[in-house]
Amino acid sequence: MQLRDALDDYKRHAGDGTRFPGERRTVSGRFSGGNGRLVHVGDDGELRDFGYPLTGRTGLVRSRIGLAVGDEVAWLDEAETSQRYVGDTALVETVHETPRATVTRHDLTLGDAHLTRASVEFADGDVDPADASLVVYARFAPDGRDDRVGQLRYDDAVEVYHADERDFLASATGFADLRGQLPATFPELLDDDPTELPRDRDGDRYEEERLSGEVIADVPFDDGVATVATLLTDRAETDREAARERLADLFADLDDVDALAEAAADALPSVPESAPARESVVADLRVLSLLSAPSGLRIAGPDFDPYYEHSGGYGYTWFRDDAEISGFLLGAADAVDLDLDDWHARSARMYVDTQRPDGSWPHRVWPRNGALAPGWANARIEDGPDVDYQADQTGSVVAYLARARATGVDVAGLDATLVAALAGLDRTLEPDGRPVVCQNAWEDSAGRFAHTAATFLEAYSELARHGEGLSVDALDDPDAVPGAASLPDDLAAHARDRAREVYDALDDLWVPERGCYAVRETLDGGIDDRLDSATLALAAAHRSFDALGAADGEGGAVDDERLDRLVSHVETVVDGLSHETDDIAGLIRYEGDGWRRADQLSEKVWTVSTAWGANACAELAALLAAHDDPRAVEMTARARDLLAHVSPGGSLCEPTTYLPEQFFDDGTPDSATPLGWPHAIRLATVALLDDELPQFADRAAADDD
């Protein structure tokens, strides 16, 4: 998104009650892509690239497509439009009903290429197809620039370049006409009204034909079909001859809808027909693939606010979100019969590669290469105190890597990474058994949080369960990792002792008056007893801890008093954060949450919190079932009720099958869409309910009757 576009959107939406001006929203429309370039196909048909964090290439920042008949152009974004995914794929079909014709488009992103195939059926038999063409307006921003950009012209393609990035627009049928134009001028930017683009050709501005990233092309139809493609390249990796050959091959190989659908199907993991809630599972895997870089790291969501006007940006990898997603996928793969071995290995490899020398992981990184990304929680890299550090991120990564090791994921350096991480966890655990003062999961306050403690409990428990054979000897130089040299010989037993310390220390955060665990101990030593959906992580963490006792034949490590407290906590949080209007139902993030309310007076509902509630109830139900506790039935029913809100057909699941981060009370979706984290939670919860708790489904239904 360029500043010109942000200002244009600001003019269009300033003062709106549920839209934040200056953003490039993705709450409608669908994405195409997977493991690389990410292209948004708006519900009006506009194409925009969102893949810079994944590939380092900016590509398309604006576009329009129109149908020209003679001298008249009908822009398809002004026509009545419907849209869907084709089957289980990321092939997007968009149908535009113009006054003269029906235009059916198929959009597919493969690697760094995107194809748009448009077929036209004229309602008026008097129209001569030879008089019609597809009009394509495209603005590229190679290297993220909209200045100092040039064009090279070929018979069937145009190359837009700056320094390193070279972007191509090509047509299978050539160009009947091709022209450029300069971006919005200063007077246009300062005008109160937004600028309508593209403009008419200006004969006095000869330089605009070559000195901009904006192209307007007339593409002839051949037997009612016109196909255009864009390709993003780096000059050091792909020369222009190779780029043009790639485009020619794409046109030759993908010359009909069936070929596009077949190529799209190959890009995503297959889902068995027998999978539970199959539509939901397909949608979740599609989203997680869309948000993934070739490295395996994922952006949290498409970056709708790159200028940080209303947020801190979303097009980065947070190790909390990413490791939680990896863990959910690892747990769900066997239950749903998914082949995700490559995904598991890529994630583990990147976590090994991005670990810091002190055993921790940084705030956020660029997913394409793991380089440090802009952030505000890099205290362990900067000088000064460590308060602005998010210790839960390290806990989440450790829990995943320990589980991955146990399932046979084998990447170089994994054992050394776990040993260094164990030393890092120890150094951020206070003598009282709870983690140090740090930032919370929501990144908006500091203290000693129950959620952080939950991630430590889970991390230590998973290391204790799966740490057999771990040794300090895995480190090349133990003295180079703070605290590693003083670790004992039996690291699994040490992790078990630490897990018990955290388990016992959680009693310090119990609030009997509310029947729940406090969200945090504040900086002045007080107890913040607000309800917070992040504390729902305690359910899964205790299930991991309980498995330690079960492994020893002791029937589980969680005692009866803790079970009672967990049940009370989960019920209190779910009931206390539940929010319902005529349009939506779900959980708010936490009591007093004021972020992105706009004109709304109350907290907004979050899909992450709602899905987390469903998962926590399911995890707790499984824990209760392991203890032969009859409360597992009711907790399973709660899980299913909450899951319904974020499942296809639920009020928090868009017709696209996407889960936006937030919703206003009137049902307007907001913020990053789709957000990867709730999709992974949804997938894991579906798998858990089907794989481990099916015996309670009929009993819960009978109780309802």
From TrEMBL:
Spans annotated as Disordered: 1-24
One of the GO biological process terms: carbohydrate metabolic process
Domain of life: Archaea
Chain ranges of the DUF7997 domain: 1-245
Pfam families: DUF7997 (PF25978)
SUPFAM superfamilies: Six-hairpin glycosidases
GO molecular function: hydrolase activity, hydrolyzing O-glycosyl compounds
InterPro entries cross-referenced by the UniProt entry: 6-hairpin_glycosidase_sf (IPR008928), 6hp_glycosidase-like_sf (IPR012341), DUF7997 (IPR058310)
Family as reported in the entry's similarity comment: Belongs to the glycosyl hydrolase 15 family.
Protein name (record): Glucan 1,4-alpha-glucosidase
Lineage per the UniProt record: Archaea, Methanobacteriati, Methanobacteriota, Stenosarchaea group, Halobacteria
